[in-house]
Amino acid sequence: MTDTTASAEGGASIVGGQKYCSGCATVLHKDAAQCPKCGAPQAGAAAAGSKSKIAAVLFALLLGGLGAHKFYLGRPVWGVLYILFCWTFIPSVVSLIEGIVYATMSDAAFTRKYG
Q1: 23/3 same-domain check
Q2: Alpha-carbon distance 30 to 54, whole Å?
Q3: Residue 48: per-residue pLDDT
Q4: How many C-beta atoms surround the C-beta of residue 56 within 10 A?
Q5: Tell me: the pLDDT tens digits for 95-109?
Q6: Is 59 found in the same domain as 40?
């Protein structure tokens, strides 16, 4: 059984794996991040290659002294600095704080900042 809804535009209909564009009402795939016709970003679509907040928190708390979370979040220069100074334990303290910050940050803010 499929979920079909009639459209006001020329009788087009959407099926279970589709949705309407929030900008121009074109029929799109339900996971589309952007409309190919008007370019409007679609709500609720996870961007391809987006970073997991939970993974970043775990990397920061467990392997933060070596900068694993920085490499994961696409900041390799900071990751190398964490490795170079890991013997001082300063990166470990900083990564503990960063892990807490990541955990308390909203999902929308985390996605906006780190993709």
Answers
A1: yes
A2: 25
A3: 54
A4: 22
A5: 999 999 999 999 989
A6: no
Answer yes or no: are the C-beta atoms of 70 and 91 closer than 8 Å: no
Instruction: Give dist(CA 21, CA 42) in Å, integer.
Output: 7
Range of the domain at 72: 53-114
Residues 70 and 101 occupy one common structural domain: yes
Please tell me whether residues 63 and 37 are part of one structural domain.
Answer: no
C-beta separation of 16 from 80 below 8 A: no
The residue behind tokens 């708390």 is 61
Q: Which structure tokens are listed for 84? A: 């170079």
Of residues 40 and 78, more confidence is placed in 78
Per the structure block, which two tokens stand in for 86?
């890991």
Q: What is the pTM of this model?
A: 0.61
**Secondary structure (H, E, C), the chain:** CCCCEECCCCCCEECCCEEECCCCCCEEECCCCECCCCCCECCCCCCCCCCCHHHHHHHHHHHHHHCHHHHHCCCHHHHHHHHHCHHHCHHHHHHHHHHHHHHHCCHHHHHHHHC
What is the pLDDT, as a whole number, of residue 30? 78
